[in-house]
Amino acid sequence: MKLEQEEELEHIHRVHYTVMERLAGLFVIIAVALLIGAFAFSREISFMLADKFTLYTEAEDIANLEEGNPITIGGVEVGRVREIEWTDENRLQLRLEILERFHGQVRRDSIARFSPLTLVGEPAVEITRGDPKKPRLKDGDRIRLVIGPTLNDLVSQLGPAVEDITGITASVNALLAAIRPEDVGELTAQLAGVTGNTRELLEKINAGEGSIGRLLADESLAEELARTVGEINSVLTTTNRRLRDAEPLMAALTSRIEEASTLMENVDALVVQLTGAVETFGADQGDAVAEVLWETRTALDQAAKTLEAIRNTWPFSTGAAEEPAVAPLPSQPPAN
Amino acid sequence: MRRLPLIILLLLAGCGGGPVTQPPPPSVLEAREMHRQALDAYQSGRYPAALAMFEEAEKLFRSIDDPHGIASAALSQAELYLLYGRHEDAARAAGRARNAIDRGSGTQLQPQLALVEARLRIPEDPTVARAALRELAALPGRTGALAALIECDLAMQAGDECLPRPIEGDPLLQARLYQLQGGASFRAGRNEEGLRRLQAALSIYRSEGYRPGLASVHEALAEARLQQGAEDEARQHLERALYLRLWINDAVHARRVLERLEPLASDAELAGRYAAWRASLHDDAAEPQWEQMMTELLTPL
Description:
heterodimer, A: 57% helix, elongated, B: mainly alpha, 15 helices, disordered N terminus
Protein backbone atom coordinates (compact mmCIF):
# COMPACT_ATOMS: atom_id res chain seq x y z
CA MET A 1 0.00 0.00 0.00
CA LYS A 2 2.80 2.39 0.96
CA LEU A 3 4.57 1.45 -2.18
CA GLU A 4 1.53 2.33 -4.36
CA GLN A 5 1.19 5.75 -2.65
CA GLU A 6 4.87 6.52 -3.26
CA GLU A 7 4.52 5.64 -6.96
CA GLU A 8 1.48 7.92 -7.33
CA LEU A 9 3.24 10.79 -5.60
CA GLU A 10 6.21 10.36 -7.84
CA HIS A 11 3.92 10.42 -10.90
CA ILE A 12 2.34 13.73 -9.86
CA HIS A 13 5.63 15.48 -9.24
CA ARG A 14 7.49 14.25 -12.24
CA VAL A 15 8.89 16.87 -14.68
CA HIS A 16 8.93 14.79 -17.83
CA TYR A 17 5.80 14.85 -20.15
CA THR A 18 4.56 12.17 -22.39
CA VAL A 19 4.25 12.73 -26.18
CA MET A 20 0.47 13.02 -25.92
CA GLU A 21 0.80 15.72 -23.30
CA ARG A 22 3.22 17.67 -25.44
CA LEU A 23 0.87 17.49 -28.46
CA ALA A 24 -2.08 18.75 -26.48
CA GLY A 25 -0.02 21.67 -25.24
CA LEU A 26 1.07 22.51 -28.76
CA PHE A 27 -2.55 22.65 -29.96
CA VAL A 28 -3.45 25.01 -27.16
CA ILE A 29 -0.57 27.32 -28.07
CA ILE A 30 -1.51 27.31 -31.77
CA ALA A 31 -5.15 28.09 -30.95
CA VAL A 32 -4.13 30.99 -28.75
CA ALA A 33 -1.75 32.26 -31.43
CA LEU A 34 -4.50 32.09 -34.07
CA LEU A 35 -6.85 33.98 -31.80
CA ILE A 36 -4.25 36.67 -31.21
CA GLY A 37 -3.52 36.78 -34.98
CA ALA A 38 -7.19 37.12 -35.90
CA PHE A 39 -7.56 39.82 -33.29
CA ALA A 40 -4.51 41.64 -34.57
CA PHE A 41 -5.37 41.39 -38.28
CA SER A 42 -9.10 42.16 -38.08
CA ARG A 43 -9.82 45.26 -40.17
CA GLU A 44 -11.99 46.77 -37.57
CA ILE A 45 -9.57 46.06 -34.78
CA SER A 46 -6.58 47.12 -36.81
CA PHE A 47 -8.48 50.30 -37.75
CA MET A 48 -9.18 50.93 -34.08
CA LEU A 49 -5.58 50.45 -33.17
CA ALA A 50 -4.06 52.32 -36.12
CA ASP A 51 -3.10 55.99 -36.08
CA LYS A 52 -5.85 58.19 -37.47
CA PHE A 53 -6.67 61.80 -38.09
CA THR A 54 -10.09 63.44 -37.98
CA LEU A 55 -11.85 65.73 -40.42
CA TYR A 56 -15.20 67.45 -39.98
CA THR A 57 -17.81 68.35 -42.56
CA GLU A 58 -21.35 69.65 -42.59
CA ALA A 59 -24.41 69.20 -44.75
CA GLU A 60 -28.12 70.08 -44.78
CA ASP A 61 -29.20 66.58 -45.74
CA ILE A 62 -27.16 63.41 -45.80
CA ALA A 63 -29.88 61.11 -47.21
CA ASN A 64 -29.12 57.52 -46.19
CA LEU A 65 -25.57 58.06 -44.89
CA GLU A 66 -25.03 56.49 -41.45
CA GLU A 67 -22.39 56.28 -38.77
CA GLY A 68 -19.93 53.52 -39.61
CA ASN A 69 -20.22 53.97 -43.39
CA PRO A 70 -16.85 53.73 -45.11
CA ILE A 71 -14.73 56.58 -46.44
CA THR A 72 -12.80 55.83 -49.60
CA ILE A 73 -10.05 57.42 -51.66
CA GLY A 74 -9.84 56.13 -55.21
CA GLY A 75 -11.99 53.15 -54.22
CA VAL A 76 -9.73 52.15 -51.28
CA GLU A 77 -11.35 52.19 -47.89
CA VAL A 78 -9.38 54.64 -45.76
CA GLY A 79 -11.69 55.46 -42.88
CA ARG A 80 -15.13 55.55 -41.36
CA VAL A 81 -17.88 58.05 -40.67
CA ARG A 82 -17.66 58.09 -36.91
CA GLU A 83 -20.24 60.52 -35.67
CA ILE A 84 -23.22 62.38 -37.06
CA GLU A 85 -24.74 65.10 -34.91
CA TRP A 86 -26.82 68.26 -35.19
CA THR A 87 -25.06 71.60 -34.89
CA ASP A 88 -26.53 74.69 -33.24
CA GLU A 89 -27.42 75.93 -36.74
CA ASN A 90 -29.50 72.79 -37.30
CA ARG A 91 -27.06 71.37 -39.79
CA LEU A 92 -25.63 67.90 -39.68
CA GLN A 93 -21.98 67.61 -38.69
CA LEU A 94 -20.06 64.49 -39.65
CA ARG A 95 -16.84 63.38 -37.98
CA LEU A 96 -14.68 61.50 -40.44
CA GLU A 97 -11.91 59.28 -39.12
CA ILE A 98 -9.20 58.58 -41.68
CA LEU A 99 -6.12 56.37 -41.35
CA GLU A 100 -3.00 58.40 -40.85
CA ARG A 101 -1.12 56.52 -43.53
CA PHE A 102 -3.47 58.04 -46.16
CA HIS A 103 -3.02 61.58 -44.81
CA GLY A 104 -0.77 62.44 -47.77
CA GLN A 105 -3.73 62.06 -50.17
CA VAL A 106 -5.97 64.53 -48.38
CA ARG A 107 -4.99 68.07 -49.32
CA ARG A 108 -6.56 71.54 -49.20
CA ASP A 109 -8.30 71.01 -52.55
CA SER A 110 -9.74 67.61 -51.62
CA ILE A 111 -13.52 67.28 -51.59
CA ALA A 112 -15.71 64.73 -49.85
CA ARG A 113 -18.45 63.39 -52.08
CA PHE A 114 -21.45 61.27 -51.27
CA SER A 115 -23.92 59.80 -53.75
CA PRO A 116 -27.24 58.67 -52.25
CA LEU A 117 -27.76 56.52 -55.39
CA THR A 118 -24.85 54.14 -54.69
CA LEU A 119 -25.60 51.01 -56.67
CA VAL A 120 -23.34 48.44 -55.00
CA GLY A 121 -22.51 47.94 -51.31
CA GLU A 122 -23.16 50.32 -48.47
CA PRO A 123 -23.17 54.08 -49.04
CA ALA A 124 -19.66 55.55 -48.87
CA VAL A 125 -18.06 58.99 -48.67
CA GLU A 126 -15.47 59.38 -51.42
CA ILE A 127 -12.62 61.83 -50.80
CA THR A 128 -10.90 63.13 -53.90
CA ARG A 129 -7.11 62.95 -54.03
CA GLY A 130 -5.66 66.39 -53.53
CA ASP A 131 -2.89 68.15 -55.37
CA PRO A 132 0.41 67.01 -53.73
CA LYS A 133 1.74 70.57 -54.03
CA LYS A 134 -0.98 71.85 -51.73
CA PRO A 135 -0.72 71.52 -47.95
CA ARG A 136 -2.32 68.61 -46.15
CA LEU A 137 -5.56 69.08 -44.26
CA LYS A 138 -4.68 69.04 -40.57
CA ASP A 139 -6.26 66.89 -37.92
CA GLY A 140 -9.56 68.54 -36.97
CA ASP A 141 -9.83 70.59 -40.19
CA ARG A 142 -13.03 70.92 -42.21
CA ILE A 143 -13.54 69.41 -45.65
CA ARG A 144 -16.26 70.37 -48.12
CA LEU A 145 -18.96 67.72 -48.61
CA VAL A 146 -20.82 67.48 -51.90
CA ILE A 147 -23.99 65.38 -51.83
CA GLY A 148 -25.10 63.91 -55.17
CA PRO A 149 -28.68 63.95 -56.42
CA THR A 150 -31.27 61.90 -54.62
CA LEU A 151 -33.95 59.85 -56.31
CA ASN A 152 -36.42 62.67 -55.74
CA ASP A 153 -34.03 65.15 -57.35
CA LEU A 154 -33.77 62.93 -60.41
CA VAL A 155 -37.50 62.46 -60.70
CA SER A 156 -38.13 66.17 -60.33
CA GLN A 157 -35.58 66.86 -63.10
CA LEU A 158 -37.06 64.23 -65.38
CA GLY A 159 -40.58 65.62 -65.42
CA PRO A 160 -39.78 68.93 -67.18
CA ALA A 161 -37.26 67.17 -69.44
CA VAL A 162 -39.92 64.75 -70.60
CA GLU A 163 -42.27 67.65 -71.27
CA ASP A 164 -39.57 69.47 -73.24
CA ILE A 165 -38.77 66.42 -75.34
CA THR A 166 -42.42 65.78 -76.02
CA GLY A 167 -42.92 69.41 -77.02
CA ILE A 168 -39.87 69.48 -79.25
CA THR A 169 -40.78 66.20 -80.87
CA ALA A 170 -44.27 67.48 -81.57
CA SER A 171 -42.82 70.65 -83.16
CA VAL A 172 -40.36 68.71 -85.27
CA ASN A 173 -43.10 66.31 -86.31
CA ALA A 174 -45.29 69.24 -87.32
CA LEU A 175 -42.42 70.70 -89.33
CA LEU A 176 -41.73 67.35 -90.93
CA ALA A 177 -45.37 67.00 -91.84
CA ALA A 178 -44.98 70.18 -93.88
CA ILE A 179 -42.20 68.66 -95.95
CA ARG A 180 -42.82 66.72 -99.10
CA PRO A 181 -40.23 63.95 -99.08
CA GLU A 182 -40.96 63.01 -102.67
CA ASP A 183 -39.84 66.49 -103.75
CA VAL A 184 -36.59 66.22 -101.83
CA GLY A 185 -36.00 62.77 -103.27
CA GLU A 186 -36.73 64.00 -106.79
CA LEU A 187 -34.42 66.97 -106.39
CA THR A 188 -31.66 64.80 -105.00
CA ALA A 189 -31.99 62.29 -107.83
CA GLN A 190 -31.93 65.13 -110.34
CA LEU A 191 -28.82 66.60 -108.75
CA ALA A 192 -27.14 63.23 -108.55
CA GLY A 193 -27.84 62.60 -112.21
CA VAL A 194 -26.51 65.95 -113.33
CA THR A 195 -23.47 65.65 -111.08
CA GLY A 196 -22.75 62.22 -112.51
CA ASN A 197 -23.07 63.45 -116.09
CA THR A 198 -20.80 66.40 -115.40
CA ARG A 199 -18.18 64.28 -113.71
CA GLU A 200 -18.21 61.88 -116.65
CA LEU A 201 -17.86 64.76 -119.05
CA LEU A 202 -14.99 66.28 -117.11
CA GLU A 203 -13.26 62.92 -117.05
CA LYS A 204 -13.59 62.71 -120.83
CA ILE A 205 -12.17 66.19 -121.21
CA ASN A 206 -9.27 65.52 -118.85
CA ALA A 207 -8.55 62.11 -120.38
CA GLY A 208 -8.08 63.56 -123.86
CA GLU A 209 -4.32 63.83 -123.41
CA GLY A 210 -4.90 67.22 -121.90
CA SER A 211 -6.15 68.59 -125.17
CA ILE A 212 -9.52 70.17 -124.39
CA GLY A 213 -9.59 71.95 -127.72
CA ARG A 214 -9.34 68.70 -129.66
CA LEU A 215 -12.15 67.05 -127.70
CA LEU A 216 -14.37 70.11 -127.91
CA ALA A 217 -13.88 70.08 -131.64
CA ASP A 218 -16.13 67.05 -131.55
CA GLU A 219 -19.51 68.67 -132.11
CA SER A 220 -21.50 66.09 -130.18
CA LEU A 221 -19.34 66.52 -127.10
CA ALA A 222 -19.70 70.27 -127.24
CA GLU A 223 -23.47 69.86 -127.44
CA GLU A 224 -23.41 67.43 -124.52
CA LEU A 225 -21.42 69.89 -122.49
CA ALA A 226 -23.79 72.73 -123.28
CA ARG A 227 -26.78 70.57 -122.36
CA THR A 228 -25.20 69.54 -119.07
CA VAL A 229 -24.44 73.13 -118.14
CA GLY A 230 -28.03 73.98 -119.00
CA GLU A 231 -29.28 71.17 -116.77
CA ILE A 232 -27.10 72.32 -113.91
CA ASN A 233 -28.41 75.87 -114.21
CA SER A 234 -31.97 74.62 -114.21
CA VAL A 235 -31.47 72.41 -111.17
CA LEU A 236 -29.65 75.16 -109.33
CA THR A 237 -32.43 77.62 -110.01
CA THR A 238 -34.98 75.18 -108.63
CA THR A 239 -32.77 74.35 -105.66
CA ASN A 240 -32.21 77.96 -104.76
CA ARG A 241 -35.89 78.79 -105.06
CA ARG A 242 -36.85 75.88 -102.85
CA LEU A 243 -34.15 76.62 -100.33
CA ARG A 244 -35.27 80.25 -100.15
CA ASP A 245 -38.87 79.20 -99.58
CA ALA A 246 -37.90 76.62 -97.00
CA GLU A 247 -35.37 78.77 -95.16
CA PRO A 248 -37.59 79.68 -92.16
CA LEU A 249 -38.61 76.04 -91.89
CA MET A 250 -35.00 74.93 -92.00
CA ALA A 251 -33.93 77.38 -89.31
CA ALA A 252 -36.72 76.25 -87.01
CA LEU A 253 -36.05 72.60 -87.70
CA THR A 254 -32.31 72.84 -87.14
CA SER A 255 -32.61 74.60 -83.80
CA ARG A 256 -35.26 72.19 -82.62
CA ILE A 257 -33.16 69.18 -83.62
CA GLU A 258 -30.16 70.56 -81.73
CA GLU A 259 -32.29 71.18 -78.67
CA ALA A 260 -33.81 67.73 -78.89
CA SER A 261 -30.42 66.05 -79.29
CA THR A 262 -28.97 67.76 -76.22
CA LEU A 263 -32.04 67.03 -74.20
CA MET A 264 -32.02 63.42 -75.28
CA GLU A 265 -28.45 63.01 -74.09
CA ASN A 266 -29.23 64.61 -70.74
CA VAL A 267 -32.38 62.66 -70.18
CA ASP A 268 -30.77 59.45 -71.31
CA ALA A 269 -28.11 59.90 -68.63
CA LEU A 270 -30.80 60.59 -66.07
CA VAL A 271 -32.69 57.51 -67.12
CA VAL A 272 -29.59 55.35 -66.72
CA GLN A 273 -29.09 56.76 -63.22
CA LEU A 274 -32.73 56.32 -62.36
CA THR A 275 -32.85 52.79 -63.69
CA GLY A 276 -29.93 51.93 -61.42
CA ALA A 277 -31.66 53.66 -58.56
CA VAL A 278 -34.85 51.70 -59.08
CA GLU A 279 -32.90 48.47 -58.98
CA THR A 280 -31.11 49.51 -55.80
CA PHE A 281 -34.03 50.91 -53.89
CA GLY A 282 -36.95 48.96 -52.56
CA ALA A 283 -39.83 47.83 -54.71
CA ASP A 284 -42.12 50.52 -53.34
CA GLN A 285 -39.79 53.33 -54.37
CA GLY A 286 -39.24 51.64 -57.72
CA ASP A 287 -42.97 51.72 -58.36
CA ALA A 288 -43.01 55.43 -57.62
CA VAL A 289 -40.61 56.25 -60.45
CA ALA A 290 -41.58 53.49 -62.88
CA GLU A 291 -44.20 55.68 -64.53
CA VAL A 292 -41.77 58.56 -65.03
CA LEU A 293 -39.21 56.17 -66.46
CA TRP A 294 -41.75 54.73 -68.85
CA GLU A 295 -42.80 58.19 -70.01
CA THR A 296 -39.17 59.17 -70.47
CA ARG A 297 -38.39 56.10 -72.49
CA THR A 298 -41.46 56.73 -74.64
CA ALA A 299 -40.46 60.34 -75.20
CA LEU A 300 -36.90 59.30 -76.05
CA ASP A 301 -38.13 56.66 -78.49
CA GLN A 302 -40.42 59.19 -80.11
CA ALA A 303 -37.62 61.74 -80.37
CA ALA A 304 -35.27 59.13 -81.81
CA LYS A 305 -37.83 58.14 -84.44
CA THR A 306 -38.34 61.77 -85.35
CA LEU A 307 -34.62 62.39 -85.73
CA GLU A 308 -34.36 59.26 -87.86
CA ALA A 309 -37.20 60.54 -90.00
CA ILE A 310 -35.37 63.83 -90.42
CA ARG A 311 -32.26 62.01 -91.54
CA ASN A 312 -34.32 60.09 -94.09
CA THR A 313 -36.16 63.18 -95.24
CA TRP A 314 -33.11 65.38 -95.66
CA PRO A 315 -30.72 63.39 -97.81
CA PHE A 316 -28.24 66.20 -98.12
CA SER A 317 -27.28 68.40 -95.22
CA THR A 318 -28.42 71.78 -96.46
CA GLY A 319 -31.04 70.64 -98.92
CA ALA A 320 -34.65 71.44 -98.26
CA ALA A 321 -37.95 70.72 -99.84
CA GLU A 322 -40.44 73.39 -100.63
CA GLU A 323 -42.59 74.06 -97.63
CA PRO A 324 -46.21 73.29 -98.38
CA ALA A 325 -47.58 76.36 -96.66
CA VAL A 326 -51.15 75.18 -96.92
CA ALA A 327 -52.98 71.96 -96.30
CA PRO A 328 -56.54 71.39 -97.40
CA LEU A 329 -59.54 70.91 -95.17
CA PRO A 330 -59.40 67.36 -93.77
CA SER A 331 -61.84 64.86 -95.27
CA GLN A 332 -65.16 65.07 -93.45
CA PRO A 333 -67.55 62.20 -92.88
CA PRO A 334 -70.75 62.34 -94.95
CA ALA A 335 -73.59 64.28 -93.36
CA ASN A 336 -76.52 62.87 -95.26
CA MET B 1 -13.40 77.67 -122.31
CA ARG B 2 -10.57 76.58 -120.04
CA ARG B 3 -12.49 77.93 -117.09
CA LEU B 4 -15.54 75.81 -117.88
CA PRO B 5 -14.70 72.89 -115.58
CA LEU B 6 -14.08 75.35 -112.77
CA ILE B 7 -17.38 77.07 -113.43
CA ILE B 8 -19.16 73.72 -113.43
CA LEU B 9 -17.53 72.75 -110.17
CA LEU B 10 -18.45 76.10 -108.66
CA LEU B 11 -22.01 75.63 -109.81
CA LEU B 12 -22.12 72.20 -108.24
CA ALA B 13 -20.55 73.53 -105.06
CA GLY B 14 -23.44 75.99 -104.95
CA CYS B 15 -25.74 73.04 -104.40
CA GLY B 16 -24.10 72.46 -101.03
CA GLY B 17 -24.35 76.09 -99.97
CA GLY B 18 -26.61 77.31 -97.21
CA PRO B 19 -30.08 78.63 -97.91
CA VAL B 20 -30.49 82.28 -98.71
CA THR B 21 -32.45 84.18 -96.08
CA GLN B 22 -35.36 85.83 -97.81
CA PRO B 23 -38.96 85.92 -96.65
CA PRO B 24 -41.67 84.85 -99.10
CA PRO B 25 -43.12 87.70 -101.19
CA PRO B 26 -46.18 89.50 -99.74
CA SER B 27 -48.50 87.96 -102.34
CA VAL B 28 -47.55 84.48 -101.17
CA LEU B 29 -48.10 85.42 -97.54
CA GLU B 30 -51.47 86.96 -98.41
CA ALA B 31 -52.65 83.77 -100.13
CA ARG B 32 -51.46 81.58 -97.26
CA GLU B 33 -53.11 83.86 -94.70
CA MET B 34 -56.42 83.74 -96.56
CA HIS B 35 -56.24 79.94 -96.64
CA ARG B 36 -55.45 79.84 -92.93
CA GLN B 37 -58.40 82.10 -92.13
CA ALA B 38 -60.64 79.85 -94.20
CA LEU B 39 -59.54 76.84 -92.16
CA ASP B 40 -60.15 78.78 -88.95
CA ALA B 41 -63.63 79.71 -90.15
CA TYR B 42 -64.36 76.05 -90.87
CA GLN B 43 -63.06 74.97 -87.47
CA SER B 44 -65.38 77.43 -85.77
CA GLY B 45 -68.35 76.15 -87.77
CA ARG B 46 -68.67 79.17 -90.12
CA TYR B 47 -68.90 77.06 -93.24
CA PRO B 48 -70.31 79.69 -95.65
CA ALA B 49 -67.53 82.11 -94.66
CA ALA B 50 -64.97 79.32 -95.01
CA LEU B 51 -66.23 78.50 -98.49
CA ALA B 52 -65.95 82.13 -99.59
CA MET B 53 -62.45 82.40 -98.17
CA PHE B 54 -61.28 79.18 -99.84
CA GLU B 55 -62.53 80.60 -103.17
CA GLU B 56 -60.60 83.81 -102.51
CA ALA B 57 -57.49 81.85 -101.49
CA GLU B 58 -57.66 79.85 -104.72
CA LYS B 59 -57.74 83.10 -106.71
CA LEU B 60 -54.75 84.43 -104.80
CA PHE B 61 -52.80 81.19 -105.33
CA ARG B 62 -53.59 81.39 -109.04
CA SER B 63 -52.22 84.92 -109.18
CA ILE B 64 -48.85 83.66 -107.92
CA ASP B 65 -49.09 80.39 -109.86
CA ASP B 66 -48.77 78.11 -106.84
CA PRO B 67 -50.14 74.69 -107.89
CA HIS B 68 -50.04 73.27 -104.37
CA GLY B 69 -51.96 76.24 -102.99
CA ILE B 70 -54.51 76.05 -105.80
CA ALA B 71 -54.98 72.31 -105.26
CA SER B 72 -55.39 72.73 -101.49
CA ALA B 73 -57.91 75.55 -101.77
CA ALA B 74 -59.89 73.81 -104.52
CA LEU B 75 -59.89 70.50 -102.64
CA SER B 76 -61.13 72.24 -99.51
CA GLN B 77 -64.02 73.70 -101.52
CA ALA B 78 -64.79 70.26 -102.91
CA GLU B 79 -64.93 68.87 -99.36
CA LEU B 80 -67.33 71.63 -98.28
CA TYR B 81 -69.55 71.26 -101.34
CA LEU B 82 -69.65 67.52 -100.70
CA LEU B 83 -70.73 68.25 -97.14
CA TYR B 84 -73.50 70.44 -98.55
CA GLY B 85 -74.54 67.74 -101.01
CA ARG B 86 -73.75 70.09 -103.93
CA HIS B 87 -72.18 67.43 -106.08
CA GLU B 88 -71.86 69.46 -109.28
CA ASP B 89 -69.99 72.25 -107.50
CA ALA B 90 -67.88 69.66 -105.69
CA ALA B 91 -67.01 67.98 -108.99
CA ARG B 92 -65.94 71.30 -110.51
CA ALA B 93 -63.75 72.13 -107.51
CA ALA B 94 -62.27 68.62 -107.55
CA GLY B 95 -61.52 69.07 -111.26
CA ARG B 96 -59.59 72.24 -110.53
CA ALA B 97 -57.69 70.44 -107.76
CA ARG B 98 -56.94 67.58 -110.16
CA ASN B 99 -55.52 70.00 -112.76
CA ALA B 100 -53.29 71.68 -110.19
CA ILE B 101 -52.04 68.34 -108.87
CA ASP B 102 -51.34 67.11 -112.40
CA ARG B 103 -49.42 70.33 -113.05
CA GLY B 104 -46.96 69.29 -110.37
CA SER B 105 -48.13 70.19 -106.90
CA GLY B 106 -46.75 66.88 -105.62
CA THR B 107 -48.56 63.70 -104.72
CA GLN B 108 -49.37 64.62 -101.15
CA LEU B 109 -52.98 65.59 -101.90
CA GLN B 110 -53.59 62.70 -104.26
CA PRO B 111 -55.27 60.28 -101.78
CA GLN B 112 -57.66 62.90 -100.41
CA LEU B 113 -58.62 63.97 -103.92
CA ALA B 114 -59.12 60.34 -104.93
CA LEU B 115 -61.49 59.94 -101.99
CA VAL B 116 -63.49 63.00 -103.03
CA GLU B 117 -63.66 61.70 -106.61
CA ALA B 118 -64.81 58.27 -105.41
CA ARG B 119 -67.54 59.84 -103.26
CA LEU B 120 -68.68 61.95 -106.21
CA ARG B 121 -69.08 58.78 -108.26
CA ILE B 122 -71.48 57.18 -105.75
CA PRO B 123 -74.79 58.57 -107.17
CA GLU B 124 -73.89 57.64 -110.75
CA ASP B 125 -72.12 54.34 -110.33
CA PRO B 126 -72.03 52.89 -106.82
CA THR B 127 -70.20 49.74 -107.97
CA VAL B 128 -67.27 51.66 -109.44
CA ALA B 129 -67.28 54.01 -106.46
CA ARG B 130 -67.17 51.08 -104.05
CA ALA B 131 -64.23 49.53 -105.90
CA ALA B 132 -62.33 52.82 -105.67
CA LEU B 133 -63.21 53.17 -101.99
CA ARG B 134 -62.03 49.64 -101.25
CA GLU B 135 -58.70 50.51 -102.83
CA LEU B 136 -58.42 53.70 -100.78
CA ALA B 137 -59.43 51.85 -97.61
CA ALA B 138 -55.98 50.24 -97.60
CA LEU B 139 -54.37 53.65 -97.00
CA PRO B 140 -53.28 54.55 -93.49
CA GLY B 141 -54.77 57.45 -91.57
CA ARG B 142 -58.03 59.29 -91.88
CA THR B 143 -58.39 58.92 -95.65
CA GLY B 144 -58.20 55.12 -95.43
CA ALA B 145 -60.50 54.92 -92.40
CA LEU B 146 -63.10 57.20 -93.98
CA ALA B 147 -62.97 55.31 -97.29
CA ALA B 148 -63.56 52.03 -95.43
CA LEU B 149 -66.44 53.56 -93.50
CA ILE B 150 -68.20 54.93 -96.57
CA GLU B 151 -67.70 51.67 -98.47
CA CYS B 152 -69.17 49.76 -95.54
CA ASP B 153 -72.16 52.11 -95.48
CA LEU B 154 -72.76 51.51 -99.20
CA ALA B 155 -72.38 47.77 -98.73
CA MET B 156 -74.98 47.72 -95.96
CA GLN B 157 -77.36 49.84 -98.01
CA ALA B 158 -76.96 47.34 -100.85
CA GLY B 159 -77.79 44.49 -98.47
CA ASP B 160 -74.25 43.16 -98.41
CA GLU B 161 -72.52 42.22 -95.22
CA CYS B 162 -69.84 44.52 -93.89
CA LEU B 163 -67.97 44.54 -90.64
CA PRO B 164 -66.79 48.11 -90.03
CA ARG B 165 -63.23 48.33 -88.86
CA PRO B 166 -62.74 49.90 -85.45
CA ILE B 167 -61.87 53.60 -85.39
CA GLU B 168 -59.74 55.14 -82.69
CA GLY B 169 -58.76 58.70 -82.00
CA ASP B 170 -61.09 60.37 -84.51
CA PRO B 171 -64.36 61.41 -82.82
CA LEU B 172 -66.17 62.41 -86.02
CA LEU B 173 -65.43 59.09 -87.72
CA GLN B 174 -66.34 57.26 -84.51
CA ALA B 175 -69.69 59.09 -84.44
CA ARG B 176 -70.30 58.24 -88.09
CA LEU B 177 -69.54 54.61 -87.29
CA TYR B 178 -72.16 54.63 -84.49
CA GLN B 179 -74.59 56.19 -86.93
CA LEU B 180 -73.88 53.48 -89.47
CA GLN B 181 -74.24 50.74 -86.84
CA GLY B 182 -77.47 52.37 -85.64
CA GLY B 183 -78.89 52.16 -89.16
CA ALA B 184 -77.94 48.48 -89.32
CA SER B 185 -79.66 47.86 -85.98
CA PHE B 186 -82.88 49.48 -87.22
CA ARG B 187 -82.78 47.44 -90.43
CA ALA B 188 -82.41 44.29 -88.32
CA GLY B 189 -85.38 45.31 -86.18
CA ARG B 190 -83.28 45.99 -83.09
CA ASN B 191 -84.81 49.41 -82.52
CA GLU B 192 -83.64 50.00 -78.95
CA GLU B 193 -80.07 49.22 -79.91
CA GLY B 194 -80.37 51.49 -82.93
CA LEU B 195 -81.62 54.36 -80.79
CA ARG B 196 -78.76 53.89 -78.32
CA ARG B 197 -76.21 54.01 -81.10
CA LEU B 198 -77.73 57.12 -82.66
CA GLN B 199 -77.79 58.80 -79.25
CA ALA B 200 -74.09 57.93 -78.85
CA ALA B 201 -73.36 59.52 -82.23
CA LEU B 202 -75.38 62.57 -81.24
CA SER B 203 -73.35 62.98 -78.02
CA ILE B 204 -70.05 62.91 -79.90
CA TYR B 205 -71.22 65.37 -82.55
CA ARG B 206 -72.46 67.69 -79.79
CA SER B 207 -69.14 67.58 -77.99
CA GLU B 208 -67.36 68.28 -81.28
CA GLY B 209 -69.83 71.00 -82.32
CA TYR B 210 -70.26 69.32 -85.71
CA ARG B 211 -73.58 70.64 -86.98
CA PRO B 212 -73.77 68.60 -90.23
CA GLY B 213 -73.41 65.43 -88.18
CA LEU B 214 -75.99 66.56 -85.62
CA ALA B 215 -78.46 67.33 -88.39
CA SER B 216 -77.97 63.98 -90.06
CA VAL B 217 -78.49 62.08 -86.79
CA HIS B 218 -81.68 64.05 -86.09
CA GLU B 219 -82.88 63.08 -89.55
CA ALA B 220 -82.09 59.42 -88.84
CA LEU B 221 -83.86 59.65 -85.46
CA ALA B 222 -86.88 61.20 -87.15
CA GLU B 223 -86.95 58.31 -89.59
CA ALA B 224 -86.77 55.82 -86.71
CA ARG B 225 -89.60 57.59 -84.83
CA LEU B 226 -91.75 57.62 -87.97
CA GLN B 227 -91.27 53.87 -88.28
CA GLN B 228 -92.56 53.58 -84.71
CA GLY B 229 -95.53 55.84 -85.49
CA ALA B 230 -94.33 58.67 -83.24
CA GLU B 231 -95.01 61.54 -85.66
CA ASP B 232 -94.69 64.39 -83.14
CA GLU B 233 -91.27 63.25 -82.06
CA ALA B 234 -90.25 62.74 -85.68
CA ARG B 235 -91.35 66.28 -86.53
CA GLN B 236 -89.35 67.69 -83.59
CA HIS B 237 -86.22 65.92 -84.80
CA LEU B 238 -86.77 67.17 -88.34
CA GLU B 239 -87.30 70.74 -87.19
CA ARG B 240 -84.04 70.59 -85.26
CA ALA B 241 -82.31 69.14 -88.30
CA LEU B 242 -83.77 71.93 -90.44
CA TYR B 243 -82.55 74.60 -88.06
CA LEU B 244 -79.05 73.10 -88.13
CA ARG B 245 -79.05 72.86 -91.93
CA LEU B 246 -80.19 76.47 -92.23
CA TRP B 247 -77.53 77.52 -89.73
CA ILE B 248 -74.79 76.23 -92.00
CA ASN B 249 -76.58 77.42 -95.19
CA ASP B 250 -76.98 73.85 -96.44
CA ALA B 251 -79.76 74.27 -98.99
CA VAL B 252 -79.71 70.77 -100.51
CA HIS B 253 -80.23 68.93 -97.24
CA ALA B 254 -82.56 71.63 -95.89
CA ARG B 255 -84.86 71.14 -98.91
CA ARG B 256 -84.87 67.40 -98.27
CA VAL B 257 -85.80 67.95 -94.62
CA LEU B 258 -88.59 70.34 -95.62
CA GLU B 259 -89.92 67.74 -98.03
CA ARG B 260 -90.21 65.27 -95.18
CA LEU B 261 -91.66 67.88 -92.83
CA GLU B 262 -94.52 68.89 -95.09
CA PRO B 263 -96.70 65.79 -94.51
CA LEU B 264 -96.03 66.03 -90.79
CA ALA B 265 -97.14 69.66 -90.49
CA SER B 266 -99.85 70.18 -87.89
CA ASP B 267 -101.96 72.31 -90.22
CA ALA B 268 -102.24 73.44 -93.82
CA GLU B 269 -100.73 76.85 -93.10
CA LEU B 270 -97.54 75.32 -91.71
CA ALA B 271 -97.38 72.87 -94.60
CA GLY B 272 -97.70 75.84 -96.94
CA ARG B 273 -94.87 77.61 -95.19
CA TYR B 274 -92.61 74.57 -95.54
CA ALA B 275 -93.46 74.30 -99.23
CA ALA B 276 -92.75 77.99 -99.79
CA TRP B 277 -89.40 77.73 -98.12
CA ARG B 278 -88.48 74.69 -100.11
CA ALA B 279 -89.32 76.44 -103.36
CA SER B 280 -87.35 79.56 -102.49
CA LEU B 281 -84.30 77.86 -101.07
CA HIS B 282 -81.62 77.99 -103.73
CA ASP B 283 -78.18 76.51 -103.37
CA ASP B 284 -76.57 79.93 -103.47
CA ALA B 285 -79.19 81.68 -101.36
CA ALA B 286 -78.09 85.04 -99.98
CA GLU B 287 -77.24 85.44 -96.33
CA PRO B 288 -80.43 87.31 -95.18
CA GLN B 289 -82.67 84.53 -96.45
CA TRP B 290 -81.15 81.99 -94.08
CA GLU B 291 -81.51 84.31 -91.11
CA GLN B 292 -85.13 85.02 -91.95
CA MET B 293 -86.04 81.34 -92.23
CA MET B 294 -84.32 80.49 -88.97
CA THR B 295 -86.22 83.27 -87.20
CA GLU B 296 -89.53 82.13 -88.68
CA LEU B 297 -88.81 78.53 -87.76
CA LEU B 298 -88.45 79.53 -84.13
CA THR B 299 -91.61 81.69 -84.24
CA PRO B 300 -94.86 79.75 -83.84
CA LEU B 301 -97.60 80.55 -86.29
